[in-house]
Amino acid sequence: MKQETLTRRNVDQLRRTNFKVAEAIAPGWERQRAFIEEVSAPVREWMIRELSPRPGQTVLELAAGAGDSGFEAAACVGERGRLISTDLSPTMVGVARRRGSELGVANVDFRVIDAERIELDADSVDGVLCRLGYMLMADPATALSETRRVLRAGGRLALAVWGAPDRNPFFAIVAMILAHGGHMAPPEPEAPGIFSMAREERTRTLLEDVGFGDVYTEEVPVRFRLADIDQYLAVTTDTAGAVAIALRGLSDAERTQVKARLEEAFADFRIDGGYELSGVALCAAAS
Q1: Rounded to whole angstroms, how far apart are CA atoms 110 and 106?
Q2: Which of 132, 171, 180, 245 lies at 20 to 30 Å from 29 by C-alpha?
C-alpha cells in the first residue's frame, strides 16, 4: 500500500510538472511552429493517412500543440464534421486557436483537456490523433484507456512517439550533454519523457492492454535541417520540454560550454550551409 501511495503521489507530481512545462514552452512552440511542422510533415501525413477521417466524422486531437495535424483532419471531415483540438496547457490551446484562425478553419472546437481525464462522453468520437504526446504523459496507460473509452465502435487512433535515442541525435545529444554537466537528471527507463515509448513492444503492449486491437506500427524517418548551432539552441530552448527548461536555467558561461560541446558533437552532421540530423518517429495506428 505504501508503494502504491508513493506511486500515485509521484504521478500527481509528474502531472503538475507536465502542466508547468507545457505552459512554459507554449510561446516557443508558436515561434518555432514552421520549423516543427516542416520536420514533422512525414509523421503528420502518416497519421492522417492511417486515421483516414471521412466527411461528417468527429476527430479528437490530444496534446495538439499548435494544432496543425488536427487541422488536416478538419479539412477531411468537412463542414458536416468536427475537430476537437485539445491540449493540457491553456496557453498552448491559445496557440492552436490563433493558428486555426490564420488558416480560416471553422469546424473546430478548442478545449483545454487533460488526456488522462478526457471530459467527453464515451463513444463520442470517430477518430483520435496524438502526435508526440503520450510519451510525455505521467500515466500513458490511463490516457490510452481514456482514448479507448471516447472512441466509437470501429473508431481509430493514430499516434506518434519518438524512436530510440541512438536514432534521434537531435534530442539525445543535448540531453546527454546536460545530464553529464549536472544540469538535468538522466531519464529513468520508461519514465515519462521523449524516449519513454521508443520501444515498439512497449507501445504495442500499452495499446493492447487497454483494449485496442489491430495494432499496426511503422517507423517514419524525419530530417532536422539547421543553419547553425545558434538556431539549434533557439529551437530546443523554445520547444524541447524538460531540455528547454534546463537550457533556460544555464548561466552565460554554462551556455557557452554547452554550445562548444554541441559544436563538437554535431561535427558529423555538418553539410554545406549548416547541419542535417536524421530522426525516427515510431508511429502506431489501432482500433
Answers
A1: 11
A2: 180
Contacts of 258 (CB under 8 A, 6+ apart): 174, 177, 178, 181, 183, 233, 247, 250
List all residues 6 or more positions away from 115 whose beta carbon is below 8 Å from its beta carbon. Answer: 62, 63, 86, 88, 130, 133, 134, 137, 143, 146, 147
CB-CB contact of 137 with 70 (8 Å): no
- pLDDT tens for each residue of 190-231: 788 999 999 999 999 999 999 999 999 999 999 999 999 999
The CATH number of domain 2-163+192-222+280-286, selected from 1.20.1250.20, 3.90.700.10, 3.40.50.150, 2.60.120.200: 3.40.50.150
Neighbours of 172 (CB within 10 A): 18
pTM comes to 0.94
- Cα angle 128, 216, 194 (rounded to 5 degrees) comes to 65
Q: How many Å apart are CA 17 and CA 278, to the nearest integer?
A: 29
User: How many CA atoms are closer than 13 Å to the CA of 102, on its beta-carbon side?
Assistant: 12
256: left (phi > 0), else alpha (psi -120 to 50), else beta? alpha
Q: 203: which 3 cell numbers? A: 507501445
Mean pLDDT of 48-71: 98
CA 108/CA 100 separation, integer angstroms: 8
Angle at 9 between CA 149 and CA 248, to 5 degrees: 95
